[in-house]
Each structure stands twice: as structure tokens, then as C-alpha cells.
Amino acid sequence: MKEADRAKLNLDRQSFLGRNSSSVLDGTRVAIVGLGGGGSHVAQQLGHLGVGEFVLIDPDVVENTNLNRLVGATQQDVAKSSSKAAVAGRVIVGVNPGARISIETARWQLCAIALRSCDVVFGCVDSIAEREQLETAARRYLTPYIDIGMDVHRMAEGFSIGGQVALSMPEGPCLRCMGIIDDRKLELEAQAYGAAGGRPQVVWPNGLLASLAVGFFVQLFTPWRKELGLPVLLEFDGDAQTVSPSNKLLYLGEHECTHFADFSSLGDPFWTVNDLRNRIAAGKN
Amino acid sequence: MRVVFKLTKRLLEKVYARLEQSHPFAFERVGFLLCRAGLLDDGGVVILAHDLHDVADEDYLDDPAVGAMMGPNAIRKALQTSYNRQASMFHVHLHLHRGKPHFSRVDESETAKFVPDFWNVQPVLPHGAIVFSEDSACGKSWIPGLRAPIDISQFSVVGIPTRKL
């Protein structure tokens, strides 16, 4: 095999995704916010799929408690305090050297402008408040938002594992419509703010939920059958090891989201012509 | 400068459904997309379409020399909508063929006359004009601070599937 051929990702085995699927995927810009247990799996799979452009955002560095689930991270990354986003970038480039990758090690709110040009945003964040902010940022720019969440609950007789994958499409049901976010949950989370101790996390539910999220992504951009429906909310019962469309979908039906229906919820809320003129004057265009 | 135009699949279907309807005397229909805008990290601009502003049957002029000619009421109502809703306005019409459409000479000259008028009511927003074909689109945007209109470099249709025209 020639060196040049080795360096190019060969996608022949997924050509059933469509005649132009390779170029569609290569021309797709994806943001992954949170490159921990869930996001690292998403990054790896999108790298294998041949997605061409990534914005990888995570302010955290790799710690030894992450190695039980962080795909691609090594003991050396712990020693070097490598950023989680950089580890994900390394995994992607290791598979697809042609991928264009932007690494952001600030909190996503400080580099949110990078999300505006993305075709899809994956939210792999821990808190409910952050989910809501991220979904709002994505909706502002008519960007599909795919959210994954996993939790291990303490029960009287042990532990229970659960999770969900949600697709929040502009004009479709949002995370509030689906019941993933509500004021009570936000209030409880705010009350627990600052509570010490890491939340329990394990690798296989993260991997499963990430795979389902990537399945949503593929159905959005290179569907393998046109008539496939796309349930917007899948629920994972980790104890029974089952995944099913949420019962909440029965009640959503042709539900019109009212949370993001307002015209003013689109675009830059602080748009001024001065910003534009400054950019033009600075030669950014 | 890169200009990206985004709209949902549902809105695009609404545009086609309305603009494909026949008119009592005009050969084609036109409309306006109400939009908002944002800056991109590479210095470009993204235009986000929200709704279709229809041109009423009676607001067309009977001019057999062109496909559709808007009368003064059509322009006035569109200006009023832009003002009331603080909307960036993009004129739309269809060229019913497959492949990349192009502005005709009449399209070029007419849009250059009325699109900059929207700066009288919304001076800080971009405005423009778009031609949709059956599977593609082309467009121009008048950006505040720039004299000449800029070609829209990318159209994204957000839905299932999400695609670029």
C-alpha cells in the first residue's frame, strides 16, 4: 500500500450511506461540547465515519479518575495533564489525518461563537443548567442539538443505571418539551451546587448512549433510507439493558415547541453594525 | 466575506408550496423571508430565516414583460413588516428547474433597486434576494458597510435530512 493511500480514510464499507456520503460527512462541521466519558466516544466514532471538521470544547484535563471511561486517554495523559479536547483531537486525527480540528480549552460559553458555524452540536455535559444553555445557543443558530445524559442512582438495594439521548431540532420539541429539563430539576441542581464528590460514571453506558447519538447524526446527514422515522428521545434502562423510544413521545405527537418559537430567539441578540464594520475594517473579511 | 443562509426544511417547503401556486395574471409568485442575523467566528455572517412574508395577489402589477412585478403596496407592506418585526428581509422567487439557478438580468436590476431600501427601516441588518430552484439556490446579500452585494456562499436546510443546497 502506498503511503498516500494509507493516510486517506477509506470509507468504501459505508458507501451504502449514499453516493455523496463521503463528501457530505467531510463537509460537515461538528461541535462536541464535553469530551469526557460520553463525548470521547462520540469523537472517536465521528472520526471513523469521516466527519471532516470538528470543534472540540472542554476546559478539563485528564485525571486518573477519568481513565475508567475516557476513550483514547492514557496514563501518560494523566502525567502530562493533557486536555481532554486535545486527546479527542488526537484520536480523530489518528484515524482521519485529513480532519480539520479546532481545540477549545475554555468553558464553552467563552467560545460559543465557534458553535454558530457548526452543522450540529453534541452536548455531552453533566449539568441540567448547562444543557439548557447549550440547547438555547444551538437553537439561536438553527443548529440541531444532540444531547446525551447518563446517570447512576443510589437505590435502597444498590444502584440503578439510566440515561437518554435526545435530538432537539429547530421547530421540533425541545428538552423542556421532552421533560428532560424543568424548573424543579434546575432548582434541585442549584441547591446541590458545590456538593463534594465525583458522580459515578462507567464506560459501557457512555459508549452505548454515544453510539445512539451518532446514529441520530448519521440519520440526519446521510440517512441510509429516506423513509426512516427518527424518534427524538431514546431512553436507556441500564439495569434491564434495553433502549426504547420514550413513552413521552406518545404525548408529544405533533407538538409545537413554544419555548423557542419567538422570532427574537434567533440570531445574535446583541447584533450591532459596529461589530460588523470593525471586522470589515480589521480586514477579517 | 462568507455569508451562510440557514432555514428549516419546513419553512422551505412552505416557500415552495406558496410560490408554486398560480397567480391570476402574473407568471410567477414572489415573497420575502423574515430573517435574523449573527456573526460567525471566521468573520462571516449567518442569516437565519424564520417566516415567509407573502405578497398578496392584488399587490402585483400586470406586466407581461416580466415573470412577476411587485407594485408599490407590496414593497410598502414588506418594509412595514421589516420595521415592525425588526427583520432582515430576503426577497425570494423560484426558477423551476434542477441544478444551480442564476439571477436573470431583470432579477439583478430589480433587486438592486429595492433591496437597499430596507436599510431605510432596518439600517443595521443585512437584506438580500434569493432564487430557489427545485434542488438548489443562489442568493445575494447586501451587508451594512459594504457597497456591493455579496454572493451567499452556503445554503443549509435544517431538517431530516439536513443538507446543503
Question: CATH class of chain A, please?
Answer: Alpha Beta
Taking all residues together, what is the mean pLDDT of chain B?
93
The tally of strands of chain B reads: 11
- The arrangement of helices and strands of chain B along the chain is EHEEEEHEHEEEEE
How many distinct domains of chain A? 1
Number of helices of chain B: 3
Uncertain runs of chain B are none
Greatest interface and its participating residue counts: A-B, 37 and 40 residues
Q: What is the terminal-to-terminal distance of chain B?
A: 19 Å
- The Rg value of chain B, from CA coordinates, equals 15 Å
Which architecture of chain A per CATH? 3-Layer(aba) Sandwich
For the report, how would you describe the main beta sheet of chain A? 8 strands, mixed
What is this structure, in a nutshell?
The complex is a heterodimer of chains A (285) and B (165). With 285 residues, chain A is of the alpha/beta class. Chain A contains ten helices and eight strands.
